[in-house]
Amino acid sequence: MNPKFLMRILEKTDLKTKLRLAKVITKLGSGDDIVKCMLCPNMCLYACPVFDAEKRLTVSPSVKSRIAYFGGNEAIYHCLPCDACKENCKMEISVNDNLRNLRSGKYAEKIDSWLSKISKKIDEREGRILYFPGCRTFEAKLFEPTLEYLEKIGIDFAVNSDIICCGMPYFELGDKRYSEHFSKLKKVASQYEMVISNCPHCVYTMKGLGIKAEHMFSVMKPLKIGGSISYHDPCIMARKLGLVEEPREFLKACGFELIEPAFSGRQTACCGYGGVYRLLYPENAEKIAERRRKQFESEIITACPACKKALNAKDLVEIVLEVL
User: Which of 202, 218, 234 represents a domain boundary (last residue)?
Assistant: First the structure.
């Protein structure tokens, strides 16, 4: 498709024509998602947390796709893996998934620096189930509480120090070193019956690699606690892993009354700390986090270390450990 022709379509048509165009492009079949997205008149704009924080069309979903199509670079890094766009797109297009394939590893040194700061020496132990915390779990200071919890409930778990990061940050940036992490993770995981992790993004990454992996709460046991709380749905957990009712059922089994915030379930609002956006643009990520925090009136409980840090929340493990 000729780029100049596309630009004329996008620049010269009125809103009514663009809305008709939006209905037509859903029938393009298996065509390039970048093209289909760039032809859309930004119908998912209202749901994009990055646009809400930065307030400029350059980083809006369909404009980023146009920039990517014409060889632009910087704007394609201004994205989160939240899939709010996909959730609100008739064509079910994930802008971040498309842009990730066009990134060239720029800013990888920031990931190197961040990992070196949060990485720590861990003691290995043997067991049937591998506990893979993921780098965000260390940052959120959730590693030690999780070890304590797993020990108290009698899970036969292992800890392996060969690999700390699943490789997701490098994968998000398009840095080729992600393949080294993926290969090593698959090799380590093959030694165990299954893998459990606090981090939904790690779980999603491992499932994509064919590893039998589950989120931590799959082995957790509810205890009677009680009280009123609100549960924040991590984007990856709700939209990519499809875990919406399960954590709520767990909390209800603990005796909690759930006060749903504005935007929950698959229509959750992003915390801004997912993927690598916070590491590249911390001020904008904090704007997203602050907006989300204001949507809660009760204590926030979540099931993701990145969300825990962003929202000053408690993790499922922490609330159960308090009474164990």
Answer: 218
Range of the structural domain that residue 90 is part of: 3-100
User: Is 92 in the same domain as 140?
Assistant: no
Using N-to-C axis directions, what is the helix angle for 61-69 and 3-12, rounded to 10°? 150
Residue 261: CATH number of its domain = 3.40.50
Q: How many domains does the chain have?
A: 3
Token digits of residue 171? 């994968």
Are 73 and 17 in contact, with CB atoms under 8 Å apart?
no
- Could you give the strand order of the β-sheet that contains 299-302, starting from the edge strand earlier in sequence? 256-258, 227-231, 299-302, 314-315
CB 107 within 8 A of CB 280: yes
Distance, in Å, from the CA atom of 145 to the CA atom of 138, rounded to the nearest integer, reads 11
pLDDT by residue, tens only, the chain of 324 residues? 444 455 455 555 666 665 555 554 444 444 488 888 988 889 999 999 999 999 999 999 999 999 988 887 899 999 999 999 999 998 999 999 999 989 999 999 999 999 999 888 889 999 999 999 999 999 999 999 999 999 999 999 999 998 889 999 999 999 999 999 999 999 999 999 999 999 999 999 999 999 999 999 999 999 999 999 999 999 999 999 999 999 999 999 999 999 999 999 999 999 999 999 999 999 999 999 999 999 999 999 999 999 999 999 999 999 999 999
CB 131 within 8 A of CB 146: yes
| Opening angle at CA 177, ends 163 and 203, nearest 5 | 50
Same domain, 85 and 125: no
Q: Which residue among 78, 100, 122 closes a domain?
A: 100
Q: Are 252 and 227 in contact (CB under 8 A)?
A: no
Enter the DSSP assignment of 209: T
Q: Which pTM was predicted? A: 0.89
State whether 203 and 121 are in the same domain.
Answer: yes
- Supply the DSSP string of 85-132, one letter for each residue: HHHT-TT---HHHHHHTT---TTHHHHHHHHHHH------B--SEEE-
